[in-house]
Amino acid sequence: YQVEPLKMGQCVNCHRKNGAPTDCAACHH
Q1: Is 23 helix (H, G, I), strand (E, B) or coil?
Q2: What is the pLDDT of residue 24?
Q3: What does the alpha-carbon distance between residue 11 and residue 3 come to, in Å, rounded to a whole number?
């Protein structure tokens, strides 16, 4: 499936702030 770029950007920014993994494989199995 496809992820909306805007939502993806917001998620990645949040992950970076919280020190969570930002690589795609962490979320897309």
Answers
A1: coil
A2: 67
A3: 11
